[in-house]
Every structure is written in C-alpha cells, then in structure tokens.
Amino acid sequence: MRTHHLLLAFAIVCGTAGAAQADVFKKDTECKVGRRVTDKANKSGTVLAMSDQMCHVRLDDGKETYYLFWMLRAAGASAETSDRLVPGTYECFAGGRYTFMDMKITGAATYSSAGASGRFHVEPSRKIVFETGPLSKNFAHLLAGPAIGLNTDGGTFWATTCELKK
C-alpha cells in the first residue's frame, strides 16, 4: 500500500514539475486534519489524515489521494512564488542529485557559473532570461526557495534546479 502511495506521489510530481512552487508546505505539521489544501495541479480538497509525511486528502471531486506534504499549499494561497533572486550561491541538482555545478547570483542583474559571468533579468512572468554568459542558451524560471529551474528546450519541466545554499 505504501509503495502505491509513493508511486502516486511521484506521478503527481512528474506531471506538474514545471509548476511554480509558491507557498507550499515546508513541514509535515502544516498538513492538519480538516485543513483545506491545494495541490500543484490546482486541485483542492480537505486533509483527512496525516502519517509518515503523507497527507491523505479528499479532493473536491470526491476522490481520495495521498500527497507528500511539500506537494500541497493552503487553499487560497498563491500558486506563484513571491521569492526574489538574491545574491548567493545556488547549488544545482538534476534527478535529485547534485550536479557539481554552482551558480552565483552576484548582483541584481549579474551572475557567474563555470568560471564565466553574465547578465540576466527576471520578467514579471518569473521567466529568467540569461542575456549573456555561460547560461545564455538555457531557459529558466524563478521557483520558490528562491530557486532557479533550468532546461534547454523551453518547456515547463525544469530538469535542473538550482537552490540557494543556506
């Protein structure tokens, strides 16, 4: 039964990996029985139970499903992040593994990666445009954390994510 739940959670993540991760739950204690929640596909429901970091939710369509706590946000919370890129080192991961590639945001519109530097800007849609430098051929999006989602095809699946090192 637990394997089924984890596979379901994996399928949900893969199907919506491009969605911005706004006010998602940061701790399993935020998934409280009776709380109204919304998932990354904007489906809402009510928490029925919580165990082993899995939230048992009855969706508004009557279907019951399980989520890892970080796949949910409070119903009514923004689906878009209010985070901003801040100066610092962003560690990059692909497939859950560290890529040994770090990106440094060095100023309001400058970055460095792989020993070279460049300029960027963030559009109101949260699209990050690397104007010059080593990432200029990549597509990017500002995610919660703050984090940077990267890909090479312009799609909405961010195969690489770079997270602010804290």
Q: How many distinct beta strands?
A: 13
Total helical segments: 1
What percentage of amino acids are in beta strands?
Answer: 35-45%
Question: So what's the overall shape?
Answer: elongated
Reading the helices and strands in chain order gives: HEEEEEEEEEEEEE
Structural class: mainly beta
Radius of gyration: 17 Å
- Give average pLDDT, whole number: 81
* Span between termini: 36 Å
Tags for this entry?
mainly beta, SH3 type barrels, 1 helix, single chain, 166 residues, 2 domains, elongated, 5-stranded antiparallel sheet, 8% helix, 8-stranded antiparallel beta barrel, disordered N terminus
Fold and architecture overview:
The protein has 166 residues and is mostly beta strands. It is 8% helix and 43% strand. The protein is built from 1 helix and 13 strands. The strands form 2 sheets. An 8-stranded antiparallel β-barrel has the order 6-7-8-9-10-11-12-13. It has a 5-stranded antiparallel β-sheet with strand order 4-3-2-1-5. A hairpin with a 2-residue loop joins strand 2 (44-51) and strand 3 (54-59). Residues 1-21 have low confidence and may be disordered.
